[in-house]
Amino acid sequence: MTETTTSFMRDVYIVDGARTPFLKAKSRPGVFSASDLAVGVGRELLARQPFTAKDIGEVVIGCMMPSEDEANIGRVIALRLGCGKSVPAWTVQRNCASGMQALDSAAKDIAMGRHDLVLAGGTEVMSRAPLLFNRNMTHWLADLWTAKDWSSRVKAWTKFRPSYLKPIIALLRGLNDPIVNLSMGQTAENLAYRFNITRQQMDEFAVLSHQRVAEAQDKNYLTEVDTLFGNNNDFYAADDGVRRDSSVEKLAKLKPFFDKKFGSVTAGNSSQVTDGAVLLLLASKEAVQKYNLPVLGRIVDIAWAGVDPAEMGLGPVYATDEILKRNHLSLNDIDYFEINEAFAAQVLGCLAAWESDDYCREYLGRDRALGKIDLSKLNVDGGAVALGHPVGASGARIALHLANILKRERAKKGIATICIGGGQGGAMLIENVSEV
Fold first, then answer.
1. Is 419 part of the annotated catalytic residue set?
2. pLDDT (tens digit, 9 = 90+) per residue, 381-412?
3. Which CATH class is domain 12-128+271-430?
């Protein structure tokens, strides 16, 4: 295959990768911390390599909600994996695209010649999102702790009110945009309204996601999933959020969640709250040749874009457009697409924007619509509606799985793209190369 020209100073290759099963959050915190998940899958990934963990140049991890014991979770993971004290490690945050940002940061360091081998990816345990003290409780505790005598302490105690115990739910607060004061689900409702996306279209897309993941599991297409072992002889071998019996009729019974009176976005046509970790090994051509590494794919380009936070789901429209323009490509030149399914309405909104002459003229500066993506090329093994969306890991998941699809189908080019809370989009162009 003829390789596409890259803007990187050195080629960057994906040589291997793995992820945990994505575990749906139940009614209580999950059994694994975010570093537990990454270390669990990282040990399996590194065990099959011809080099040692200490040969890695750096570790870059995306994570939005590390626990209080995992402040720089990238470093925690690197040390637990045996990379050694001399291997630097760091953590990145770009909301839903934190895992893709980790890959971008790692790719740039390889391209610049800083490192030849980098372990990068993302991890998130959404089930352990903390409950926080509200401001009244925080101020009351501050007054109590700074009281200098018994009289002051008693006075502080008399000011306590039971309402102070009402917690701030960090997960819900984190999924709310402070600039436009909308939840991510409400921004999906905005796209449904703008592009006339119906409830039935959303539910049909959601059912398709579940069907495709179930089929991919049955055909052993999710080869990147490694079994995760717990401390009590328990193990997790597959993504557990998939509903094989999902149907449009069943989903139609669910009530709108974000706009209860007029909305169409439900829990059933939205991504699930999930725990999971994804790690990839990126390498330079020199490292590939030195260790005789297999090549899963080549990262050709990565683009980022900003959009209106009230329509954050359209981020992939702009980031993908930038990728195509920079590399002189059209949608028809791309063999497969992975668009993270934050919401069914969000993915359908992106497709509608690309198909609209008016939208592409006004917002992308094109003279006509970008084009239509055949659904047989989009999220062919399902997506986050069925798998879940652990925010720190999803950007890495879609990149890794896209590389696997290209290899499996002997296809050449693919784009993995993701919307980002706060009004951004990220896109990565990956190429299947037959020789290095």
1. yes
2. 999 999 999 999 999 999 999 999 999 999 99
3. alpha beta
